[in-house]
Design brief:
The chain has helices at 2-10, 13-33, 37-59, 65-70, 72-78, 83-112, 117-144, 152-159. By secondary structure, it is mainly α. The protein has one domain. The protein is elongated and about 55 Å long.
Length: 160
């Protein structure tokens, strides 16, 4: 996990791209649906969740890809350590790099969508509980498609 976090902080695009996508989707959504506060308040939690889902899927393709390309995934298979520990560490690092920044930015975006305090808290709690599960489901898709050259679309189909 430490190695994955170091790689993510050195390659900031893995962390910044999902965050920018999340903010852009939510910021542009009122332009398409209309600026009425009552409408945005009703659909706000769904918009937040859809944006979180799509932005999490942006970076999941590289979850096991680098280890597969350099051969360290094969070495992990040969090590006596259980694969669950490696996979869980990678999923936790993915969640920390992609979902935690989204959760930290979400309250500001919820206010932008005219959501009240109770709805904001419920949305944040649901993101806090749901995004780790989303990272785990996405990791299954990434593990199944790690040998494919362009498995990003297939990961989205598997995860959704």
């Amino acid at each position: 996990m430490k190695r994955d976090l170091l790689i993510a902080f050195r390659q900031r695009t893995d962390m910044v791209n999902p965050l920018f996508f999340f903010v852009m989707v939510i910021a542009l959504f009122p332009l398409g649906i209309g600026p009425e506060p009552s409408t945005l308040q009703k659909i706000g939690p769904g918009v937040i969740w859809i944006a979180a889902l799509l932005s999490t899927l942006l970076s999941v393709d590289s979850l096991f890809r680098q280890d597969f390309d350099d051969g360290s995934l094969e070495l992990a298979l040969l090590s006596p350590q259980p694969l669950f520990v490696l996979a869980f560490g990678k999923m936790l690092a993915h969640w920390l790099v992609t979902a935690v920044p989204l959760i930290l930015v979400a309250p500001v975006l919820c206010v932008m969508l005219f959501m009240d305090g109770d709805t904001i808290m419920v949305t944040l709690y649901s993101l806090l509980l749901g995004t780790p599960v989303l990272s785990m489901i996405s990791a299954i898709g990434a593990a199944l498609t790690v040998g494919l050259r362009k498995g990003g679309v297939l990961i989205a189909v598997i995860a959704l």
